[in-house]
Automatic annotation (TrEMBL):
ATP binds at K243. It comes from Qingshengfaniella alkalisoli. Its EC number is 6.1.1.17. This is Glutamate--tRNA ligase. One of its GO terms (cellular component) is cytosol. Catalyzes the attachment of glutamate to tRNA(Glu) in a two-step reaction: glutamate is first activated by ATP to form Glu-AMP and then transferred to the acceptor end of tRNA(Glu).
Length: 467
């Protein structure tokens, strides 16, 4: 298998949003394949017709698109391949690796009840496993895989190491139901084989399934893929991640305004590490990612760490890319598009907006001074900053700025001079000046704002605030 092209897949069930755990599984598969020049495939496991919806499928596609996890080829529908799954079940039947079982639900329940009463294993052993076909009744039947009764089944898992099952603990699993529909356990193996999947990377809640699925590979004489079962994600309290820990769906993180590169970085670090590297680019992740960096213990989701990593990504993101991300956030949350003037203003201001913003909404709030039109709506804190004393200082400052050369050092000197003449400190003048220029308590420095909006707008805002 070393010379084969790597082929991985992500195979979610479309019964709801793209769970954050599923997103990480998709990301790991994407990184492993793309980092080795391989293929990353997408299969929707939509065999549960009662719970599978087109809306959920679209939510999965939207979440992957936001995370920029592109896949090769068409999206595969598991449901549409039911005939192929049934074909394989009958091939195993014809080869003697499977058998027809006519046992009813009542008979199976009675077997288990008796086994419990006698202290035996409740693993169902069908009386039809080696029955003579001449004894078959004219009745509905399932097709069961003929599992080995002795020996062991071993998986050399790339994360968990060697995992062994006693074969007498594996049941003759049903491959085809009595209505002719395939079971999930069969469908997964047939699909992975037909799609050419070489590496199955999935949550360790599927580890037990792997033992039974290997039996199908063996029965069909197919190559067994490389398995890598990754630990699940837990909440900060060490329990399996659930709604009580906060957001679960990828679209919720998008709506909260976490930047996509920061989100990907954080998800990559959930259960995988590369030395002490916490913040890295996608290019670095593609180069570094491998099974050797995946731990065996569940990763703990930490919102503070997510915010910290996202803040660093905002700071290091190219201005044009960040502007595009802001526009994507506004669109995803149903907010108005930026006008041409707002785009230009943001581009000019980006250098003084990126520091200390950990989410896109924080960055937008900081950018209010360049996004809003005059007259500015002052928030409560800003309104309190402009009292009679500070108003007279701003009135004194306005003509000084009118005649100053528009450079940072000069502007700083002018404001410092006015503060000194009024027997106060620069910070005391900066507070009402910030209120007049931004209408908000959170903003870039007053001098950055003055440089970004220019002389005329600065004077106009000061006039609005003092008239």
């Amino acid at each position: 298998m070393t010379d084969q092209q790597v082929v991985t897949r992500f195979a979610p069930s479309p019964t709801g949003y793209l769970h954050i755990g599923g997103a990480r599984t998709a990301l790991f598969n994407w990184l492993y394949a793309r980092g080795r020049g391989g293929k990353f495939l997408l299969r929707i496991e939509d065999t549960d017709r009662a719970r599978s919806t087109p809306e959920a499928t679209q939510a999965i596609l939207d979440g992957m698109s936001w995370l920029r996890l592109d896949h090769d080829g068409d999206v595969i529908s598991q449901f549409e391949r039911a005939n192929r799954h049934a074909e394989v079940a009958h091939q195993m039947l014809d080869a003697g690796h499977a058998y027809k079982c006519f046992s009813t639900q009542e008979e199976i329940a009675a077997f288990r009840e008796q086994a419990r009463a006698e202290g035996r294993s409740t693993l169902f052993q069908s009386p039809w496993r080696d029955a003579d076909p001449s004894t078959f009744p004219d009745a509905p039947y399932v097709i069961r895989l003929k599992a080995p009764r002795d020996g062991e089944t071993v998986i050399e898992d790339q994360v968990q190491g060697a995992v062994t099952w006693k074969n007498d603990q594996l049941d003759d699993m049903i491959c085809l139901r009595s209505d002719g529909t395939p079971t999930y356990m069969l469908a997964v193996v047939v699909d992975d084989h037909d799609m050419g999947v070489t590496h199955v990377i999935r949550g360790d809640d599927h580890l037990a399934n792997a033992a039974r699925q290997i039996l199908v590979y063996n029965a069909m004489g197919w190559d067994v893929p490389v398995f890598a079962h990754i630990p699940l994600i837990h909440g900060p309290d060490g329990k399996k991640l659930s709604k009580r820990h906060g957001a679960l769906g990828v679209e919720e993180y998008r709506a909260m305004g976490y930047p996509v590169e920061g989100m990907r970085n954080y998800l990559t670090r959930l259960g995988w590490s590369h030395g002490d590297d916490e913040v890295f680019t996608t290019e670095q992740a593609l180069e570094w990612f491998g099974f050797d960096g995946i731990g065996k213990s569940p990763a703990r989701f930490d919102f503070k760490k997510l915010e910290n990593i996202c803040g660093q990504h905002i700071a290091m993101t190219d201005d044009a890319a960040l502007l595009a991300e802001i526009e994507d956030f506004l669109s995803a949350t149903g907010q108005p598009k930026l006008t041409g003037g707002q785009q230009e203003g943001l581009s000019r201001a980006m250098y003084c907006l990126k520091d200390r913003a950990k989410t896109i909404p924080q960055l937008i709030e900081k950018a209010y001074f360049v996004l809003a039109d005059r007259p500015l709506e002052l928030d409560e804190k800003s309104s309190k900053a402009i009292d009679d004393v500070s108003c007279s200082i701003l009135i004194e400052l306005t003509p000084q700025l009118q005649n100053a050369s528009w450079e940072r050092e000069t502007l700083e000197a002018v404001v410092a001079d006015v503060a000194e003449r009024n027997g106060t400190k620069l910070g005391k003048v900066a507070q009402p000046l910030r209120a007049a220029l931004a209408g908000r308590a959170v903003s870039p420095s007053v001098f950055d704002m003055m440089l970004v909006i220019g002389r005329d707008e600065t004077i106009a805002r000061l006039t609005d605030a003092t008239s």
